[in-house]
Design goal:
The chain is built from three helices and 34 strands. It has helices spanning 227-232, 397-402, 414-429, and strands at residues 4-19, 26-29, 35-38, 42-46, 54-59, 65-70, 76-81, 85-90, 96-101, 116-119, 125-129, 132-136, 142-147, 158-163, 168-173, 176-182, 187-194, 201-206, 212-217, 222-226, 242-244, 252-257, 263-268, 271-281, 284-290, 299-304, 310-315, 319-324, 337-338, 342-345, 355-360, 365-370, 374-388, 442-443. The strands form eight sheets. Strands 18-19-20-21-34 form a five-stranded antiparallel β-sheet. The radius of gyration is 23 Å and the shape is globular.
Length: 445
């Protein structure tokens, strides 16, 4: 008997679920593996897998919870409220440790809410309200108030606060992104980037290596800046090094970098688009379209594994797909169309199944939060698949590629074949065939 080679196929299985009292707005993970699931009224704290036992429900009270983040050590949760207060909660007990009101208020402004909170690995907490960004230290001590100084500063609020490393902070204001270096004693504006054309920036995503910053703009374009290049330059430029617009349909809901800082993924309409930022050549970037979503579905969330090859995404229909970056650039790719390697869905019995939050746990679980308040954990399991070893007798290369061991023509599974045909026809009609060099994109620098 001929030897059998083993290959492994990912499979998603629901391993745990829980229910919150309101729609899930975010899922945060601590450095210790604990899970915080936020709604407008509560923060639910769960132990790390495999138990995922509910340890504490933090109830906001009268004010709506507008933002949450774990501290760098994972011992505290910092929440921002619609009343303009920041609160620090002890993870183990759920007790409120300290509270502070956002220190900056515009005269006559009715806007009080703390829109965003982000924690750095150095222990700093950044919070945004209106046109101001405040940095706090240990015990809620107010250290600095940062404001944008660019052309958009007078009319647009600060948003999308992002730590690029333990002491470098970025935030968007209109069509500009400002980067600061922060210490306990002082802060300094490092560089200001600007979207071209001048359209509002709606999303920011920093690469894991801290070198690249990607932005989604209101005009459906993705732009990328090289932070390190500009920091080291004697004459830094505000302009992006890369602009991508072709193939993007609908609003961009999410951006995510893979662990190598080479691949950038976007959720846009019914598509998951992936660009190989490391393979820019002659003004073009190699791109892929990850297939598999139902017609009419809108992709709402996506994320790469922090240390792995899988890209997960989910839709407002409750569908979840997993794609493997190892498939990108393989011989099986046709016109840049990538089939998913695993799929799952929120049960049809769950009303409000739209997925609104998604996160990969370092332990391998995929966590989903829905509009109905359901939180689901999907376990990625590898199922062995037997593959016949190569034939001993020589056969023409063409025949080996087109014939299966029993002599019949090889075919894709029917559902994948239909999806691929539909996607190919769609992009053919739009004159957007994905060739080896990808779609045309502006590139400078």
């Amino acid at each position: 008997m001929a030897p059998v080679a083993q290959s492994w196929q990912p499979e998603l299985k629901r391993s745990w679920s829980s229910t919150c009292s309101a729609p899930v707005t975010s899922i945060a993970l601590s450095s210790k593996g604990k899970v915080a699931v936020s709604t407008a009224s509560s923060v639910y704290l769960f132990d790390p897998p495999p138990s995922l036992e509910l340890k504490k429900e933090i109830i906001a009270g009268a004010a709506t919870i507008t933002a949450t983040a774990f501290s760098s050590k994972g011992t505290d949760v910092v929440s921002g409220g619609a009343d303009g207060f920041l609160k620090w909660w002890q993870v183990e007990t759920g007790e409120e440790m300290c509270i502070t009101q956002f220190p900056e208020r515009e005269e006559g402004s009715s806007e009080l809410a703390v829109q965003e909170v982000a924690c750095s690995s150095a222990g700093f907490v950044a919070a945004v309200s209106g046109r101001y960004l405040c940095v706090f230290g240990a015990g809620g001590e107010h250290l600095h108030t940062l404001s944008a100084e660019g052309k958009s500063a007078g009319s647009a609020p600060l948003q999308l606060v992002t730590w690029l490393d333990d002491s470098t902070l970025a935030a968007a204001c209109g069509h500009e992104v400002t980067v600061w270096s922060v210490s306990q004693e002082q802060y300094k504006e490092v560089v200001v980037f600007a979207a071209i054309p001048q359209v509002n920036i709606s999303l920011l995503a920093a690469s894991p290596n801290g070198q690249l910053l990607a932005a989604a703009c209101d005009n459906g374009m993705v732009q990328v800046w090289d932070i390190k290049q500009q920091q080291d330059s004697m004459q830094p430029s505000m302009d992006p090094i890369l602009k991508i617009s072709e193939g993007i349909e609908g609003k961009i809901e999410r951006l995510s970098w893979d662990c190598t800082s080479k691949l950038l993924a976007a959720a846009a309409g019914n598509d998951v688009l992936v660009w190989d930022i490391s393979a820019v050549k002659d003004g073009k970037v190699e791109s892929y379209v990850c297939m598999g979503y139902e017609r009419g579905a809108r992709v709402t969330c996506l994320a790469f594994q922090a240390a792995g090859s899988l890209l997960a995404s989910a839709s407002d229909h409750g569908q979840c797909l997993v794609h493997d970056v190892h498939c990108f650039g393989s011989n099986g790719v046709v016109n840049g169309l990538i089939s998913h390697v695993a799929a799952a869905s929120v049960s049809s019995t769950d009303s409000g199944s739209a997925v609104q939050a998604l996160a990969w746990h370092p332990g391998g679980l995929l966590l989903l939060g829905t509009e109905a308040g359901t939180v689901v954990a999907l376990q990625v399991q590898k199922t062995p698949q037997a593959q016949p070893a190569p034939q001993q007798q020589r056969q023409p290369q063409r025949q080996q590629q087109q014939r299966s061991p029993n002599g019949t023509e090889q075919q894709l599974p029917q559902h994948q074949e239909q999806q691929q045909q539909q996607q190919q026809q769609r992009y053919k009609s739009q004159d957007m065939r994905r060739q080896a060099n990808g779609p045309s994109s502006d590139f400078s620098g």
